[in-house]
């Protein structure tokens, strides 16, 4: 079996490398599983949105994945998740459409939302610094356009 490259998520690897070098090393907090939903709810309310995604437990067989998300759910390990990883997954939910399942994947709009979440919620991050490091890492970002469309039925 061969793996297909998702061309719609053209900068996924670059985003992960940028995070590993410039974002995650500055993460000083771990969010316990039972507190993650409150953070998601807070971010959603702060954005003036309804129907936040629900936190679920990542399957115990997931050995390479720390978390995953779509518009309706964010799955994390039962042992909790790093703050920056949770914000990464919240950014995925914020840039996904519940009605059509369209997503910004790791494209520029997702990165812009993620950067804003980091700076708004973790005081040690600076937006200009993140923009500089992303650009130097070849990661495209923008801050224009809708966060998400549609609400779950």
Please characterize this protein's 3D structure.
By secondary structure, the chain is mainly alpha-helical. Helix content is 41%, strand content 10%. The protein has five helices and five strands. The protein has helices at 12-23, 33-46, 83-94, 108-121, 127-136; strands at residues 30-31, 54-57, 67-69, 73-76, 81-82. The strands form two sheets. It has a three-stranded mixed β-sheet with strand order 2-4-3, covered by helices on one side. Strand 3 (67-69) and strand 4 (73-76) form a beta hairpin. Helix 3 (83-94) packs across helix 4. Residues 1-6 have low confidence and may be disordered.
Explain the layout of strands and helices.
Elements: H1 12-23, E1 30-31, H2 33-46, E2 54-57, E3 67-69, E4 73-76, E5 81-82, H3 83-94, H4 108-121, H5 127-136
Parallel strand pairs: 2-4
Antiparallel strand pairs: 1-5, 3-4
Helix pairs in contact: 3-4
